[in-house]
Design a protein that fits this description.
Blueprint (H helix, E strand, L loop, with lengths): L3 H12 L1 H4 L4 E5 L3 E5 L11 E6 L3 H5 L3 H4 L5 H10 L4 E6 L6 H11 L3 E5 L5 H10 L5 E5 L1 H5 L1 H4 L5 E3 L4 H8 L10 E5 L2 E4 L19 H7 L11 E4 L2 E2 L10 H4 L4 E2 L2 H15 L3 E4 L9 H14 L2 E6 L6 H10 L1 E9 L3 H6 L6 H13 L3 E8 L6 H14 L3 E6 L7 H8 L29 H16 L2 H10 L3 H14 L1
Parallel strand pairs: 3-4, 3-5, 5-6, 6-7, 10-13, 13-14, 14-15, 15-16, 16-17
Antiparallel strand pairs: 1-2, 7-8, 8-9, 11-12
Helix pairs in contact: 5-10, 13-14, 14-15, 18-20
């Protein structure tokens, strides 16, 4: 992965930082030709300091729902760091862990990066632009993530380079100052002309990415134990990329291509490290569908979790669940599963690309509860052909299957998704630019695509759905009975304060 000469160059630069600012050094490298160390972002030099950043979003995007929804670490940025940390000083800056945008920018500025990579998603793109503009004259600004991948030309109005799709190898070449025209997977402007290079071939073996090394403060930011009883320390892990399905509102299978799984032994190694080095005893698996793994692939991971007494949560699809698999998950310590339901109306589910039945959904929730595993059900309002009575049916269905928690969301036509292309083709939206002053509420800064319900009607129905679900006396009594700690009571309190 790294050349001996390259390693020596990096060591030389890191050892003689101040001197390297003054000297003009020329080294011959057979792979890259003449490498000149000079402080000029247009020359092919090795970069010493790289910042990877996620702009703060939860307060702006979730608003009053922030405490009920929360935020999670940018695992994609930490993966980029792990893959490239041996050739540069790379630091991750997550705006969600700062008390102000100015302090967030100040920390990055103090680091003095030569390249700043900023992850982008639709609803928070304006904050990402603000961050990039601040560093325009100070570093090479690079946009990555879903929004940049599918809106590369637009992003180049505010960024120097766009990395499309998977970024580990592409970032490595940017750090090495490989000429832009030789780097697959990027878009850029050359003499006023938009250039989109060939796509980058995906990593075949995800085990080539080193395990994430968390700094003590970084880990503390995301894994604080219960403030009341020190019950658990939480870790985050992802064991796959891609998706085997084609849901209309998601671009995962396009962004990451076909599903690729990490070797279960590699996953077990990361679990062991998180437990031994950081004391975690609770894990959140952020795979799109953790339960897609075959039994032979899943069992080694579950055995590692069980042997260490680590409880965990994961995402699943109702049509990937069986009584046998749930028994295995429960035995290994699974205490919560997130299910995407989206709608109880078959025609609306079909419009969203969700090929499952109400019977499958109801059975999944029933069986999951039977094994003592908590459930989260997610629903989406605002599909193009959805009417008010369709939403009413979905709310009633949610109450019938009775998850421990629910998410009612309004459909977001993210660029790159099938539903976005559907809406464009039928004139429901144009190729919008994110504008939070124009489109308030959910989806923030983005138009809705319902043919029958206004944005205001969808907002109203969403909060009415929460009130109907969480406001049931029997629900609140059951949740209080299930509470195992003061933190669980605080979670219930946040729900009551937010939605009732």
């Amino acid at each position: 992965m790294k050349l001996p000469l390259e390693i020596e160059i990096i060591k030389l630069f890191n050892s003689f930082h101040a001197l390297s600012e003054l000297l003009f050094v020329v080294i011959i490298n057979t792979n890259y030709g003449i490498v000149t160390f000079k402080k000029d972002k247009n020359l092919p030099i090795f970069m010493r300091r790289v910042a990877l950043a996620q702009a703060p979003y939860s307060e702006v995007v979730f608003g009053r729902e922030k405490n009920a929804k929360g935020a999670n670490p940018p695992l994609g940025l930490y993966s980029l760091k792990a893959y490239n940390n041996n050739i540069a000083d790379i630091r991750v800056f997550d705006g969600e862990t700062y008390d102000s945008f100015n302090n967030f920018i100040g920390d990055i500025e103090d680091f003095q990066p030569e390249l700043i990579g900023i992850t982008t998603v639709s609803h928070s793109y304006e904050r990402s632009k603000d961050l990039a503009r601040y560093f325009t004259e100070k570093a090479l600004t690079v946009a990555g993530g879903p929004y940049a991948t599918f809106r590369d030309q637009e992003c180049l109005e505010d960024f120097d380079v766009v990395v499309r799709g998977e970024g580990e190898q592409t970032l490595r070449e940017l750090i090495r100052r490989v000429p832009f025209q030789k780097i697959n997977g990027i878009s850029y402007i050359d003499n006023g002309k938009f250039v989109r290079n060939l796509d980058r071939t995906r990593l075949e073996n995800l085990d080539e990415i080193p395990l994430i090394e968390w700094g003590d403060q970084e880990f503390f930011n995301y894994s604080r134990p219960s403030v009341f009883d020190n019950r658990s320390k939480t870790g985050y892990i992802i064991t796959s990329r891609g998706c085997a399905y084609n849901c209309g509102y998601c671009c995962s299978n396009i962004m990451w291509d076909r599903i690729r799984l990490r070797n279960p032994e590699n996953v077990a190694k990361e679990i062991a490290r998180l437990n031994e080095n950081y004391g975690i005893d609770y894990l959140k698996f952020w795979d799109d569908t953790f339960t897609l793994r075959s039994n032979s692939n899943l069992i080694p991971i579950l055995n590692e979790l069980k042997s260490r007494g680590i409880r965990f949560t994961c995402n699943a699809r109702a049509d990937t669940i069986s009584e046998k698999k749930l028994a295995q998950l429960a035995d290994a310590g699974c205490d919560k599963i997130f299910y995407g339901c989206e709608s109880s109306v078959p025609e609306i589910r079909k419009e969203l690309g969700r090929k499952m039945t109400n019977e499958q959904l109801a059975s999944a929730f029933h069986l999951t509860k039977m094994f003592g595993i908590h459930t989260v059900g997610s629903f989406i309002f605002g599909s193009p052909n959805e009417k008010e009575y369709d939403i009413e049916k979905t709310i009633e269905f949610a109450i019938d299957i009775d998850p421990d928690k629910v998410l009612f969301n309004i459909l977001t036509p993210h660029p790159g998704t099938p539903i976005y292309n559907y809406a464009i083709a039928r004139g429901l939206i144009d190729h919008y630019k994110v504008d939070t002053s124009k489109w308030q509420g959910e989806p923030l800064g983005i138009p809705t695509i319902s043919k029958h319900l206004t944005r205001e009607q969808l907002q109203k129905m969403k909060f009415e759905a929460y009130k109907r679900f969480y406001g049931r006396q029997e629900y609140l009594i059951n949740q209080l009975k299930k509470a195992q700690s003061l933190d669980d009571l605080v979670s219930i309190q946040n729900i009551v304060r937010t939605y009732l």
